[in-house]
Amino acid sequence: MEEKYDFVIIGSGLGGLECAYILSKQGHSVCVLEKNRQFGGCLQIFSRDKVIFDTGVHYIGGLDPGQNLHSYFSYFGLMDNVKYRKMDEDGFDRISFSDNQKEYKHAMGHDRFREELEKVFPKEKVGIKKYIDKIHEICAHFPLYNLQTMKAGVDISYLNVSAKAFIESCTSNIRLQSVLAGSNALYAGYGDKTPLYVHALVINTYIESAYRCVDGGGQITRQFERSLKSMGCKLVNYAKVTSINVDNKKVTSVSLEDGRRIVGNNFISNIHPKQTMQLIDSDKIRKTYRNRLLNLDNSISVFTVHAVLKENSFPYLNYNYYHHTQNEVWDSVYYDKKNWPENFAAFVPADSKSEKFASSMNIMSYMKYEELIPWADSFHTVPKFKNERDQSYQDWKLEKAEKLLDLVETKFPNFRSHIKSYYTSTPLSFRDYIGTSDGSLYGVLKDYKDPLITYISPKTKLPNLFLTGQNLNMHGMLGVTIGAIVTCSQFIDMEELLKQIKRAS
Ligand SMILES: Cc1cc2nc3c(=O)[nH]c(=O)nc-3n(C[C@H](O)[C@H](O)[C@H](O)COP(=O)(O)OP(=O)(O)OC[C@H]3O[C@@H](n4cnc5c(N)ncnc54)[C@H](O)[C@@H]3O)c2cc1C
Question: Roughly what angle, to the nearest 10 degrees, separates helices 494-504 and 476-488?
Fold first, then answer.
């Protein structure tokens, strides 16, 4: 007999799991289909030499009581059942540059953030205040950021402002401009594209509070698995959807790679809109809509060195580094191959073994997918499809890793002496594990010059097919969570849902 569900969710990234939770809690029958062995998408972890590495969650903002993600995560049961460690309140992010040893701190709390910058840039008080006030103002205008219903849409005037231009309007001090934009890897900042609201919503969440998951973000997935199973939701791994079947202008089922067919009343795709369109026969959905989604530009990808550190060798750093070889921090996404790497972000995971010493470090630098074209035809995920790439790829990775470590050693002299072993991931790793076409970090690239073209509605041109995930609203734990609320509000009264969320915290 065919299985039939009220909701079939394609992909088990954070957005898919959150939609499954909300809908299961309302009493619907829900099935989540995941192509990989591990659920969670970018929440996936892996372990090497007994050390756990995160792949796509290094820190989370807004988790202090009363803050937005604390409320959302309380509703999902993620506050009591996941261990977090608060990061350094005096400087959770530190921005550094190759031209001196100074570290510029992004401190937690709006007043502290301002005071910390004023200490270093005493002549820039007016510009710093202008910056902070605007960030505040923008965040106040996004209703779900503040757990309010979206009665009126967001004012377009908040969508078409450039982040770079706004920061430049606050101060002519080039170093301060670079410090304010210094953590722009958090949203893959493009000087000629990134809207100010993206910068504001992301940065503000961390300024409010910044936490790390202890022993990896995989805890979030495990908690979802427990609660979803207890509500009767069916979670199926190794379930790659290969087509979305449409009959009479409605989706009737999805087909899996192994031949199974899953039937449902409603379908939510948690995968990239472009890949979603590729699963539907081209004559079954409106052409202009399909083409728009197929042609969306994505944000850049990354190359990462995951270093296992020697025991009791390198201090645990309760903060992240965003290091730049130049003041032009917006230019690194357009790096010239000859000068790679132009920047790196370094994240030290929190583990329960020690708060004094670090057991690992993730070091990330932007990487364009086009560099991986020579191996584009290969495919690698574990435990299936192991070792499908050739020696030239391994050699290339080694060369890149060593270059990245050279730059890291300009910041942390002798860093190599602390390394026990290291592993790397590339845009191909993200492409193969997450299922995008180019391993993009955060999916669809937002452009302040044309904000509506990158606006993706949860509704599609098929009445019972919906979208969720980082491409919808915004990326990141908060952006995706808000996206899941927007998607589920197609079926549940949003005001009622927000009441339930507020009651949970
Ligand atoms: C390197 C990196 C670092 C990051 N750091 C942070 C951070 O520190 N803090 C933060 O808040 N955010 C961070 N993010 C962003 C955050 O992780 C993502 O925005 C978020 O997890 C994306 O969730 P999603 O719901 O869009 O699903 P995704 O994570 O994109 O998952 C999609 C899922 O769909 C599955 N899938 C794809 N195709 C199919 C198919 N055909 N059939 C079945 N299943 C399929 C995939 O296997 C995957 O499991 C980071 C992201 C990256 C890449």
Answer: 130
Tell me the CB-side half-sphere exposure of residue 346, using CA atoms within 13 A.
24
Q: Atom 21 of ligand 1 has which residue's CA nearest to it? A: 42
Q: Is the peptide bond before 451 cis (omega within 30 degrees of 0)?
A: no
Ordered strands of the 343-347 beta sheet? 103-106, 93-97, 320-324, 343-347, 360-367, 301-309, 419-425
Q: In the CATH hierarchy, which top-level class contains the domain 3-46+71-81+214-296+457-504?
A: alpha beta
Q: Which residues line ligand 1 (CB under 6 A)?
A: 10-16, 33-36, 41-43, 56-60, 240-241, 270-271, 275, 302, 430, 434-435, 441-442, 469-470, 475-477, 480
Tell me how far the alpha carbon of residue 442 lies from the centroid of ligand 1, in angstroms.
8
CA dist., res. 10 & res. 262, Å (int): 11
Nearest CA to ligand 1 atom 47: 434
Domain boundaries, the chain: 3-46+71-81+214-296+457-504, 84-212, 300-441
What type of residue sits at position 446? K
Residue 374 predicted with pLDDT over 90:
yes
Q: Nearest C-alpha to atom 18 of ligand 1 is from which residue?
A: 476
Distance CA 272, CA 436 (A): 6
Per-residue tokens: 108:
């937690």
HEC sequence for 308-351: EECCCCCECCCCEEEEECCCCHHHHHHCCHHHCCCEEEEECCEE
DSSP string, 233-302: -EEESS--EEEEEEETTEEEEEEETTS-EEEEEEEEE-S-HHHHHHTS-GGGS-HHHHHHHHT--B--EE
From ligand 1's centre to the CA of 57, what distance in Å?
9
Q: Which residue has the tokens 């364009």?
A: 368
Whether pTM exceeds 0.90: yes
pLDDT of amino acid 388? 72
Per-residue confidence (pLDDT) for residue 382, from 0 to 100:
82
Average pLDDT, the chain: 96
Residue of 271, 428, 467, 485 with the most ligand 1 atoms within 8 Å of its CB, for mutation? 271
Short-list 374, 368, 308, CA closest to 342: 368
What single string gives the DSSP state of each residue in 90-108? T-SEEEEETTSS-EEEE-S
Per-residue confidence at 153, pLDDT binned at 50, 70, 90? low
